[in-house]
Amino acid sequence: MSVADHVWHRCRLATLSPRREGIGIIEDGLIAAKDGVIVYAGPKTDAPAGLDAAWSTDCDGRWITPGLVDCHTHLVYGGNRAEEFELRLAGASYEEIARHGGGIVSTVRATRAASEDELVSGAQRRLEALIAEGVTSVEIKSGYGLALATERRQLRAARQLARDNPITVRTSFLGAHALPPERAGDSTAYIADVCDMIPRLAAEGLVDAVDAFCETIAFSVDETARVFTRARDYNLPVKLHADQLSNLGGAALAARFGALSADHLEYADETGISAMADAGTVAVVLPGAYYFLREKQAPPIELIRKHHVPIALATDSNPGSLPLTSLLLTMNMGATLFRLTVNECLAAVTREAARALGLFGEIGSLEAGKSCDLAIWEIERPAELVYRIGFNPLHARVWRGQTT
Fold this sequence. Notes:
single chain, alpha/beta, 8-stranded mixed beta sheet, 8-stranded parallel beta sheet, 15 helices, 36% helix, globular
């Protein structure tokens, strides 16, 4: 007899297993878990003989996907930037606002003024919106402190959110996000500050990865490379905001350092995309930011497909360029604005998003040995998750084997 803690039966599965075609559909499926880990996921007819469990859930034909993964967010911050939204509606560009003291720096001021409890409280509401749509893993970046004490406070808040909620949280240190006001005009000195923060924050167990913003309004390729070299010294993986507003060669830089992901990529060229393919770097595209900033140039999806670079989608939830807390809407935007297929969208918020966090060995597909993170849906076909707008068909959410 094969024993499990919990069995889900009479369900249809989109396993997202790379060993199955497409999104890995199984019409009459069964999932069994023990100690929060999947021990079987597949056709009911192939389940181990004598499979027994203390708990059994009849899914009544509902669909189960892996729990959703939001692999790029800035959930922890102070204040908001509704005023800048009004300025953009009046014709100001994101770059113009940033150059006049708005943008990231305005959020830095509000974040520095906020206590850790205030940061946790504000982010909690945003995180709850993601959890309500079946998200079971999320990445949270710092980058609104731009000084050791506040960057630490943001990262500590992210760790607290993980303790307070049934969700997996991965943190990214984004000290190289913008120049702080006190370092205006001296990016060399500030990059030295960032490089000094990395070992100190890593020693406190606050950093899972290091990120940077390589752009004309942020940091150069050489400055970003210094940060990444420092991260590598401490065995920290890297990610990059790359080629969002111009082509500085960010995609190629990310590949050179074996980055988990390069994100945005609107202006990436074939050289950079090809390098990403060789490095195994995931392309994280962010259609919500493209929409909210009313950008004109979309990421080169055909080039990304041509070179077989994995595509992930994420909310990019942040106070300035995208106050979005819906991964379901993000999928619709990915399909509508970037012409991704339904299968690409579903893989992008599960399997490929897990790769973008370096976690595909643990989450992102319904396979034995992985965490039992499930989203159970009241839908007739998986395409509904991409097709609908402003509708949440989540029936139940399971994290590490426990219904939440």
